[in-house]
Amino acid sequence: MGRILIKNGLVTDDKCSKKADILIKDEAIEKIEPSIDASILTKEDRAIDAEGKVVMPGAIDAHTHYHLVSRGTVTCDSFEEGSRLAAFGGVTTVVDFADHNRGQGLVRSLQYRLDEMRPGMAIDYTLHQGVYGHGYDSTIGKQLEDLKTHGVKTLKIFTTYRNTGYLIENREDLLDLFTNAKRLGMLVTAHCEFNPMIEEISDNWKGNFSPASHALLRPAEAEGKAIELFGSIALEAGCPLYVVHCSSECGLNAIRKLREKGLTVYAETTPTYLFLDRSYLDGPDGSLYVMTPPLREKSDNKALRDALKDGEIQVLATDHCAFTREQKLSCSDCRTIYPGIPGTEEMLLLLNTLKDQTKPMTMSDVVRLVSTNPAKLFGIYPQKGSLEVGTDADITILDPKARWTLEDDKMHSASHYTPYRGFEVHGKVRTTILRGRIIMEDGSYYGIAGSGRFLKQC
Ligand code: URP
Ligand code: ZN
Ligand code: ZN
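Above: the input record for the complex with N-(aminocarbonyl)-beta-alanine. Below: its predicted structure, written as tokens.
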């Protein structure tokens, strides 16, 4: 494979931006210097002029559900399609999820998911391993040890979805899980919606079950309460907590209270909760915007934007869980509409837009939120999430001055819609490089199914 020389770009990591050139050889960064003479190149090599462009570590979407088999259907973006749309969005790594399959322990569940992913993935990936109530027993400590030796150190738990068997109901089991996580240096990530509150509201509900009711049936208070509960258990175990897709000011306040008590809490939010509010659930296509947790108030969008700017949120990820318009609109009862929306392709563009609208956010803040922090938290740094000599040459070249409008037919998800239709975004991804190979350039895709690698977390 020839070398690639990226010249004249604004090289940006999580600390600073500086004018520099980058030389890539094979799969890694060979040199980063103020100026590298192009005369060293041979005819097998390639130079890219990045004048006026941002050159950053490949983005990481730390929360995806490609090819998720659930509720009698499957999400529409396969691993091939997920990889492709990710490349268009400047994303070179995803952290997807392995379900805790019934009758299978954690390691077999992980291996099942890896077998599903391997043939299709064209970008690199690692996994969060689900630990569900239906499979919780006294062997969990040993299973977690085995999981760690297989390269997965992040766990995913739920405070809701009792009917699917995901929920771990017993506080003792949760304490045991957090205690084991602390012992093994694993990170517990949690979907926080307090199930008893949701069930009580639902049991007493006199209204209809239109998409708009979704927001009322699963209120922000349920998120706050669940964070409080998981946080109290994490505190008792002395173990950090990672809150996935924080959607509300109420959730943020619960995180703040836990931090005041001394708990390390990492917070993730998604573009959904920064840019969309519950009025999107009102229209005839309200089903398209049903996800869990639901869309909130404009005031929640603002609170989360402020928290992002102030460094209270560590990771922006997407919870990409895409269904086609037909799948979404096949049902109008918010309890059974397939929950989830696409987002990986839009993530970097929306964050770059927000950065331009939000002083004093910088490009380094963008890199930190969608690349460096997830790489550090999920054990793949500095191989990913950095621009250093010797690390993987995963590089996204972004034209920060480009302006364009997101439209359904410009995006690459098999859902054939974007929840951000009509949004004018700042920035366009020109080139996406994975381990020294261009996988997307100027609107053309060159990814190879099966060439994505599983990243063991350390
Ligand atoms: O509605 C959503 N977010 N579906 C994906 C599964 C989850 O809860 O993250
Ligand atoms: Zn979730
Ligand atoms: Zn999710």
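Notes for the reader.
Residues 63, 65, 319, 321 surround zinc ion (ligand 3) (CB under 6 Å).
The first helix runs from residue 79 to 88.
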